[in-house]
Amino acid sequence: MKRIFYWTMGLICLLGCKEKVELSIDKDKFAVVLRDIHIAEAAANDIPDTKLKDSVLQVFYQQVYDMHGVDSTLIHDNINLMRTDPVLSREVYTKVLDELNSLSFEEKK
Description:
about 110 residues, 5 helices
């Protein structure tokens, strides 16, 4: 019984002492970059030829990176950080959805 108690307490301490994950890019800027990446993916979604679609996506991605002054490594590293922290992912993707919704709202005006 004591063994279970100590294992449980140890597990709680390990989980409770988890370092907070910080992105290496501002959350608001990252949300705008992700918004544009999702728009690029949606634009290429209807291309039936897989090779052509991949080529077009690479061009679109590079345009997004250039437009925001970031590179693919920065984006991939931050996406991988978000995978380790569901709360952070929710915060960023809430901002991404807000960004997408604001574009949709502007089009309706």
